[in-house]
Amino acid sequence: MSEYDATSTTGASVGVVTKRFVTLGEPPHALRLQCGREFGPFTLAYETYGELAPGGDNAVLVCHALTGDSHAAGLYAADDAKPGWWDIMIGPGKPIDTTKYFVICSNVIGGCMGSSGPASPRPGSDEFWGMDFPVVTIGDMVCAQKLLLDHLGVTRLLSVVGGSVGGMQVLEWSVRFPEMVASAVPLATTTEHSALAIAFNEVARQAIMADPDWQNGAYYGGAFPDYGLAVARMIGHVTYLSDAAMRRKFGRNLQDRCELSYSFAPEVPEFQVESYLRHQGKKFVERFDANSFLYLTKAADYFSLGRGWGEGSLVTAFSRAKCRYLVASFTSDWLYPTYQSKAMVQAMKKNGLEVSFCEVAADLGHDAFLLPSPRLNEFLTGFLASTLARVRGGTGAL
In angstroms, rounded to a whole number, what is the distance separating the alpha carbons of residues 67 and 328? Predict the structure, then answer.
């Protein structure tokens, strides 16, 4: 997920919001992770916007992308310069309208924005988990979210919505807890990573682990592997953009010079695109943990809906689902291209599921789902409203 600063041109903000924390999985109710380890107690950071209806039928779970967090909308203070990462979509009058829906967003386990992850101290200890933190999967993240919903008294989801790695969580929710989900909106996502996507993640991980400050993940209290993490972010950031967007924004323009330098001076970027990527890398190390990046990219690579729920068959996996879907891809997304979304739509339809699919024309690459899109707004607004009407009319899946 990129560092976009998109702001909404329609609707109002949810205003000042508060990040909350909850401890879950206290033994003997610890999570049984897919890797086989017991995990708990653990902390989840989360935010909510809007109010849960008396009938409990208006809850929308928003799942964040790879390096996102629970701060999806609003501001932490009135003078905050930057709102939550999906403020363009969540709020009064916006597609996920907080005057109608109760919106929940949590930071995933394995993250570093308030939920338990490798940068957290072990329960009852001052020592950090580091690489002793258990390997977590998309399924584990969803199971942790389920415990959060239990804590909040949410027994049904009007919808679960998310893009990229958040979209993987959406798909997992729809087959792991089908009785709870009335609708699902996977955006710019896939049912499993291609070899290309795994390859980019592996190069990024190797960049971190090759940094001498990484110290096998035991760097807390010392120098952090900032260089490796920044390079990893630069690699990832390239996959979030598109050829057209990069040509339009940077071309081959030089950075603060008129002529080529004919040198490898590391301190001065030569092209504007080099300067941009270095800036993104520098910003990222100020807010993210290198070990978390390793764990979250590995979770994304491990995700395979067909293997997890259908013994390799996507059609069999979706036979568990009971919800209606809105699937959206973006024309310039080469990380999770449209053919992958069409494959999941085909598997859904073979199970007789109700599916709406749209390919949104956008030349901004994978991260287009994070940017203003009137067409996506229109689709999502109508989809959620019609789902709520069906649920309240007694014809919905809940």
Answer: 21
Q: Examine the pLDDT at 307 and tell me if it is beyond 50.
A: yes
DSSP 8-class letter at 336: S
Structure-block tokens of residue 215: 């110290």
Is the pLDDT at 8 greater than 60? The verdict is no
Three-class DSSP category at 70: coil
Residue-wise pLDDT tens digits, 263-293: 888 778 999 999 999 999 999 999 999 999 9
State both tokens at 188: 């710019």
Calpha distance 71→350 (Å, rounded): 37
Nearest to 184 by CA among 150, 207, 159: 159
Structure tokens at 280: 């993104």
Catalytic residue among 106, 164, 292, 373: 164
Task: Tell me, yes or no, if 333 is annotated catalytic.
Answer: yes
DSSP β-ladder status, 38-39 and 42-49: unpaired
Residue 103 contacts residue 63 (beta carbons within 8 Å) = no
Residues 107/113, Cβ–Cβ less than 8 Å: yes
What is the reported pLDDT for 265? Answer: 81
Give the DSSP H or E segment for 322.
none
Helix (H, G, I), strand (E, B) or coil at 181: strand
360 has which bridge partners?
Answer: 330
Condensed to tens digits (0 to 9), the pLDDT of residues 216-234 reads: 999 999 999 999 999 999 9
Q: Are 311 and 305 in contact (CB under 8 A)?
A: no
State CA 98 to chain mean position distance.
20
Among 193, 329, 366, 373, the active-site one is 366
What share of the chain in percent tops pLDDT 90?
91
**Which strand (E) or helix (H) includes residue 139?**
helix 138-152
Give Dmax over CA atoms of the chain in angstroms. 70
For the whole model, what pTM was predicted?
A: 0.95
- Helix axis angle, 195-209 relative to 290-302, nearest 10°? 160
Q: pLDDT per residue over 34-68, tens digit each?
A: 999 999 999 999 999 999 999 999 999 999 999 99
DSSP string, 354-368: -EEEEEE--SS-GGG
Specify whether 373 is catalytic: no
Rounded Cα gap, residues 275 and 177, in angstroms = 45
Q: Which of 116, 333, 367, 373 is catalytic?
A: 333
Element (H, E) at 285: helix 272-285
Assess whether 366 carries a catalytic annotation.
Answer: yes
The tokens for 155 are: 């027994």
